[in-house]
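Sample 3 of the quickstart, ligand S-adenosylmethionine:
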Amino acid sequence: MPNYHIQTYGCQMNYSDTERMESYLQALGYKKTSTFKTADLILFNTCSVRQHAEDRVTGHMREIGKIKRKKPNLIVVIAGCMVRKSSSRYSSKRDKLFNAMNELDIALRTEELPRLAGLAREINPKIKIPEIKEESLEDYFCITPTHTSHQSKAQAFIAISNGCDKFCTYCIVPYSRGREKSRDINDILMEANELVENGCKEITLIGQTVNSYGLSKYDKEKQFFKDLKRKYPKKEPFVYLLEELDKLHAKGLQRVRFTSSHPKDMSDQLIKAMAKLKTQMPYLHLPLQSGDNSTLKRMNRTYTTAQYRKIIQKLRKTIPDISISTDIIVGFCGETDKEFKNTCKFFDEMDFEHAYLAQYSKRAGTTAARFIKDDVPEKVKNERWHNLNDILLRKKSKKAHERFLGKTVNVLVENQKGKTCFGRSEHFKIVQFKSGRRLLGQIVTVKITKAKEWILEGELA
Ligand code: SAM
Ligand code: SF4
Ligand code: F3S
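Result:
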């Protein structure tokens, strides 16, 4: 039996896609292996959001080249966000990646996963790949994922949409993943139901902008969204989905998280649903990107700081205890010291409890790369990153943690190393505690005894 080895980079969406890639390879008769050397097929599920993410993959190619010389039938696949055109080394129109990587055999766009078997046969028709009915896999969402990203069955990702229609000027995603397409609500509910029947307690809904679920131009043509609109004209499809998932609470589903959401689609209806539904957690990740209106405009984020502030005020009024985290890019094209200071000021005002901070990285093909000059020196980007991280974020995160001191929180244990357990609280805080019992996948009550910058520590209550 041939072996496959997958390496995954990037966001949770990619980890969720890997679960489908694994299912597909297993259906082709491949077995998982944990090293390059023991693999007959190596697949890199790549991220293209920053240059650094791409460099991590290309950095492996020397080693792969050495293995390939000893094992000429090894198939090397690059899938995910670095790929623009699904192709094999023998295709007449190939992806650009082939020009830079001699070791590469197949480039595969994620949503074209069902084409992998055909492309592999182009590489070596002698390779024994058991026939599978490709028509049954036509839609990549129809491939059943392995749900193996988490250590226990208590947690699972469910992809609800793919692609993005927002076209922020710095972002590669609308080009790498294509236009936004949402998945049939009935398929999502079936997958969720099955997971919960198998012991799942926490589902994370995955997509680039999950709160625009069912609203894209593509989605509006789909019969199931048309039916939904006819039946409930005022209900947003994403809110409907959350309400339907909430019904699984009776069967044991405790938590429904979602990521990422976009401020433009953060409606009152959604905020009310988050407050009302039993499976909704007091936590939201809402990417801001910049706290300066001119920068936001150049980024094509389609909201102002005043509009963002209003959303946060509504969220805090409706869900008083909510923890909010965000994404920020520093050093975007044309960002002046004053604009950066505005971001720091706004960050402080919004009282974010956590943030993923990135230094702007020019991505070929995006609007920013074509039309706006990447004029902030790397040194300045770095200084701004440290400014925001070391002065503001650390302070905010610690302060947010301190409010849990002496309190008890419910933790879903997602990792256990010896006697040390790690998990997330309802507010998405990382909590560490000791226990001699096997607690993986259980929700336990922990009394918080220490509030550190990035982590809470406690003991079983
Ligand atoms: N859809 C989400 C949103 O609306 O913000 C985010 C998805 S994006 C794949 C993840 C994060 O990567 C973004 O929030 C942004 O902070 C960061 N990012 C995207 N393009 C970037 C670039 N060219 N340079 C640096 N960071 C970038
Ligand atoms: Fe990228 Fe913007 Fe879409 Fe997020 S909303 S994936 S940042 S284009
Ligand atoms: Fe990277 Fe693609 Fe996610 S570019 S961040 S893996 S959507």
